[in-house]
Amino acid sequence: MSAVQTYRYLGSSALGQGGLALQTSGGPTPNPRFFTGFLTTPQAAAVGLLAVAEVARTRYHRPVSPASLDPVVTGSRDRLRFESFSGCCGVYARLDTLPAGIDGDVVEHGTTNVDVNNPLREALARVGGLDPLHLSVGPDDLTVSTMDGPVVEKKVPLPVRWLRGFAEVQILAAAFEPRAEIPATEAATFLRRLPTTSDRSVLWAVPAGKSLRLTSRPVPGAVCLAGASRLTALRGMLRFAQTLRVYGPTVAAGSAPVPSTWELDTGALRLSLTLSPEPYRGFSGEGAALTALAGDDVVDDANLVTAVLSWDPTIDVDRLASDTGIDPARVRAALAQLGTAGRVGNDVSEAAYFHRVMPYDAGRAERDNPRLVGARALLDTGAVELDGTTATIRSGDQVYRARQLPDGNLTCTCPWWAKHRGQRGPCRHALATRMLTVERAEERV
């Protein structure tokens, strides 16, 4: 299923003697220039852009022909971010061009898709170490015309899975912490020992001196490495990197597979890959965003936060709390809600959110999430009966029981919960129970 958006490009992206021209679309004015200037590390930047584009064209689970999806570029004050998901939605790639990596001005702030076509990929691959690379996001001169004029109209199908993937990744990444940092030489040895062909194994990486060692079982401090071959896109950047940093949530012995982020830092650029908990799992189905989508009060808070968001490279939660008059916890919940529409992302390196605007209907993620739609349908038909910390849910001919645990999570007797044990978010019965519990609590206030 795709959300088809119409974009207008003046032409194909190209790399010529004048520099790299990435054609953009959308924005506050037709075909704006988000940035114009030089990239200070041209060869590394070219490799990073190719890596992000390659992830967008790859299906790591059940590989098929290239997906041909356009990466997303965001300009925000002093940096550019290029993002993509793999065709299977199980790998999220991002290249951050940091202040040290650009020599120019971000003259417009915004987000758009970038046309990275075959000729451009071939040209980027030919960039040498001494070749200057000038980046212009949008044309230098804008000519507005009709559909019969020089403007090329291009319809780009953006899968709903991408929207749900962006929503899930930013919530999952908010719980990540730095787990390891190793020098580039050790990183090269570690990454080159990993398989390059598709695999379904789930391993765990444990810090070991200046390197990492792999184990088949989780231990405290370990980072999940599901489908190690999915890190292949990092290899081209190894020769430019200074360090490899690894991020993930807290795990213990016996933990289930979890997502992780693997980031190469050159000083001027950061190339990161975030992997889903298992090779066959796409981020779009993880369910981490369901609680944020289910809230009612958080929508009003999200509207307040939207009004004061700016295109800062990172979002200051305390400043937003001061500007909006709501406490930091509610600001974070509002940011999670905004993330479900692609309006914010999360940068694990800086442990902060960042602002972007995706070309999606703000309510699309909620309307297209089958578990949330199912939960609202159960509430609308009065199928949920609360009894203290338990609930009875009638769904068709079946009756299920949901129970609240001491930590606030809910269990359910349905097949979904029995299969996933809460690892992929709440089932529709637990979600409906939580929504009704909150509604009743608000009525008592």
Automatic annotation (TrEMBL):
Residues 400-438 form the SWIM-type domain. It holds the Pfam family WHD_DprA. PROSITE patterns: ZF_SWIM. The keyword Transferase does not apply. This is SWIM zinc finger family protein. Keywords: Metal-binding, Zinc, Zinc-finger. InterPro entries: DprA_WH, WH-like_DNA-bd_sf, Znf_SWIM. It comes from Micromonospora peucetia. The keyword Metal-binding applies.
